[in-house]
Amino acid sequence: MTQTAPMNDVTNLPRPTARESDPTTLAAEITERLTYRIGKDAAAATEHDWLTAATLVVRDRIVDQWMHSTRETYAKQGKRVYYLSAEFLIGRLLRDAVTNLGLMENLQTALSDLGVDYDILAELEPDAALGNGGLGRLAACFMESMASVDVPAYGYGIRYVHGLFRQDVRDGWQVEFPETWLQHGNPWEFPRRESSYEIGFGGHVNYDDNDTCIWTPRERYMAEAYDTPIVGWQAKRVNTLRLWKAEPLDPIRLEAFNAGDHIGALQDSNKAEALSRVLYPADETLAGQELRLRQEYFFCSASLQDILRRHLQQYDSLSNLADKVAIQLNDTHPAVSVAELMRLMMDVHGMAFDDAWDLTKRTIAYTNHTLLPEALESWAVPLFERMLPRHMQIIFQINARVLKEVRVTNAFSDEQIAAMSLIDENGERRVRMGNLAFAGAHSINGVSGLHTDLMKKTVFADYHKLYPLRINNKTNGITPRRWLAQANPDLYALCREVAGDDILSDLDQLKALDTVAEDAAFQERFRAIKRANKGKLADLVKDRIGLTVHPDAMFDIQIKRIHEYKRQLLNIIETVALYDQMRSHPERNWAPRVKFFAGKAAPSYHNAKLIIKLANDVARAINRDPAVRDLLRVVFLPNYNVSLAEVMVPGADLSEQISTAGMEASGTGNMKFALNGALTIGTLDGANVEMKENVGDDNIIIFGMTAAEVEAARRDGHNPSAIIDGSPELKQALNAIESGVFSPGDEHRYRDLIGGLRTSDWFMVAADFEAYASAQRHVDGLWKTPATWDAMAIRNTARMGYFSSDRTIRQYAREIWGVLD
């Protein structure tokens, strides 16, 4: 039961007339929306009412350009990009839209004339809970950049009701609560009931007399579309983020309900709701694994059906699909799209396997975001076959084709061939989604130079040997509209004075700041902006957790998903060691610091949650000690999200990018901090390598083992106990943590966590400690020479042009999608 709207001829429709957007007109429209759309008199309206009214007025101006962009794309019959991602961490949209439309000043004036403060309203907008971390924020930056550089695109994902989770901290422990961002509706979205598609699970597969496959699912649901317009810089183009909500075919089994089975009668509704309720349901149980697989197939199938429907409305054949459609898979979550596109072309549209396989490979491209084997998803064959029996058949067919191609080369051992199989035969048989994505794509890209190089040597070494032209690099980027103009408007204004008014469309123009990096007057203005941003962050800390921190101290910040390879633990241990040294040597001229941490741990990730508890335990001890009151503070801010990052990033002096070398694919937080004038302390990992090349060796603090040294240490073995015994500061810090100094109510709380460093130290925390501590003392020295620090910070801002997501998207568009000249 697929519903679609007819595609009418729009080629001759005129461009919409631009609406008047002076303050008087805006104020009148806001009042009109308040009255007739919300049903409130201005005297009785709440701040949330004013926010909705203002959003609707801004949205109207976006819609005009949105419709024109759609008509123009249709008329040109050009190629469209479809970006499939399980996450889109778009954050708040009002400030983003107002900035890109150029309405900020007029809207502020209009609201002020109505007695309303724009800044207060903007803070009321909830963050869209559609993502977790870097993967989702990258997708959001890419969507904005595609609109800004005029790439026709749709983003496809799931309209999560609760997203990941809202993080609270109780007695230092992470506690998860539902995120209720949709509780009061979402004025940015448009329901598209005409674009709904049937999604099936389970059942059986038969063949008719013509040998056509007929899959009869046991369970059937509907995917309903909700569209959000994504406006590009200066409204050059408005693209669409289409999110899917699951609905039952029958909302209630009325016969069962009337018979008294009130719970069973709603079973289909409950199952449907679960599909689009929570991002990344915990997968330590079979039920959790099944729900994840269901979610991934649900949004991939709906998206692909929508893509093919749109294509066939404009063209009469799928034969030109790869010429008109580019599908980008953002990591392995949408990898089932390879099998689903094959199913749709063969079973629904009657295409032969060879033709479907050729079209699939030419249409799909795959972005890899990890070298961690556990993050390259795999599914138990019995689970996959039970949920998606037809797709399991297709995957076996694809696997036979790929392995035959491998064997005829006579270039691979049996062990290598087994590693390239789409089915892992070691123990429980599992479907390897990374291998499926690689086999079914014409392009596989990494997201930093180092990551791409390591892909060729590690997880996809054999595939790279078979298909040496498929792997390419597209180093990540960030949108300067969000992460400079909106997050740091005072710095943006200062940069414009030196670099001109076009920096948001050409971030390379920031290089002009190099000429004033040593200028004392410019440094003073740059420093004053940083100090004001730190004041805002200090106020936020006071408001949220009741702790006073002084903006004149160095704000040293690590914000990212809590994971052992990101090494928040290394940071905490060095903080404990610094605390010991400050107490032992009060006569030294210490640089005052505030150590900030923020990030969420996966609910089932025990060690990550323990690291959050340790950070809070250490913070409690240090913040209560009068001996270091003016020298050291430790802050853990709960519920890290985009809006919190928009305050923390501009307020940072030092950016912690200290992952184990060879394990971070790219990172984008490193780019945001540097763009906003923070110095980076980090390893040669991910995009840090390219940041070092761009900002210069003298403007970044690099320490620790290289990826090759980490690999050698793991391969050849290293002795962490000997390393610990040879480092008095490290040994003392670990002993304090392990013995319960920071957990007096539970002396053994951190015994296993620290014990892991003594026995294996897989993430090289002990191995890198001395280098890290030495680098931090070098940072202290730089802090004590403000002119040197400021010059380095200015050069970081000046040299971030390469890391614009506009540059990244142009590379995708030209080298993978073929949509820009």
UniProtKB/TrEMBL annotation:
Cofactor(s) in the UniProt record: pyridoxal 5'-phosphate
Polar residues composition bias: residue spans: 1-11
GO biological process, one term: glycogen catabolic process
Protein name (Swiss-Prot/TrEMBL): Alpha-1,4 glucan phosphorylase
SUPFAM superfamilies noted in UniProt: UDP-Glycosyltransferase/glycogen phosphorylase
Family stated for the protein in its record: Belongs to the glycogen phosphorylase family.
Gene3D superfamilies xref list: Glycogen Phosphorylase B
Residues that span the membrane, as ranges: none
Region of interest called Disordered, as start-end residue ranges on this chain: 1-23
Pfam family, one: Phosphorylase
Function description: Allosteric enzyme that catalyzes the rate-limiting step in glycogen catabolism, the phosphorolytic cleavage of glycogen to produce glucose-1-phosphate, and plays a central role in maintaining cellular and organismal glucose homeostasis. Phosphorylase is an important allosteric enzyme in carbohydrate metabolism. Enzymes from different sources differ in their regulatory mechanisms and in their natural substrates. However, all known phosphorylases share catalytic and structural properties.
Catalytic activity: [(1->4)-alpha-D-glucosyl](n) + phosphate = [(1->4)-alpha-D-glucosyl](n-1) + alpha-D-glucose 1-phosphate
E.C. number(s) listed in UniProt: 2.4.1.1
Gene Ontology cellular component terms for the protein in this record: cytoplasm
